[in-house]
Design goal:
By secondary structure, the chain is an alpha+beta fold. The chain contains 3 helices and 8 strands; from the N terminus they run ααββββββββα.
Amino acid sequence: MVHRLLHASIDRDAVYGSELTDKLKMNEQCDVLNHRHRMAQQASRSSVELYTNLFFKGKTVEETGYVTQILQNGFGVLIPSYGIEGVVYTTARDAAAPSVLEYEQEAHALVSPDKKSEIRLFQRVRVILQVDDKPVSANVSSMRRKLSLRLIEPIIAGLSIEADELKALRAAKKTKAASAEEDGKIVELVAKHPEQIQTI
């Protein structure tokens, strides 16, 4: 569009439609193009979110990440192995509970009230990735789920996953893996000996 406008304004002999010299029509055309561009961006982001949630649905994944931004109510984490960026919240999103970590503006860090624990930019952390089964908020359809990140390390009281809960998550993960392995063996056996399968 821009190249055509430039060409039409530089070369008056160029054969283009009259709409290229009409300001109102050009303004309307640019508004339509900008609207379509925004819609395409939103569709792309929604598609990535959908397929990310489908990939992680029913899984509990422990990964190493790096703090990429410090917020007043949490911190952003980049997980390089999946190319995913998410937020670990230091407060419950639906409650008005006080934050476990306080934002310290001079240091641009989140620091515990006793000053023993802190989260800084580019710090290495371990997190658990799960698809949250609860709706994002009351305003959003209950069909929409969100990938949640929960802190494992560094261990910060009130923020990191408790040892018992982490042990239970790991045990459930091992049980699922064993079940999937057993299913794989059954499928392999059926594929090798189809004649031994009895029809019901």
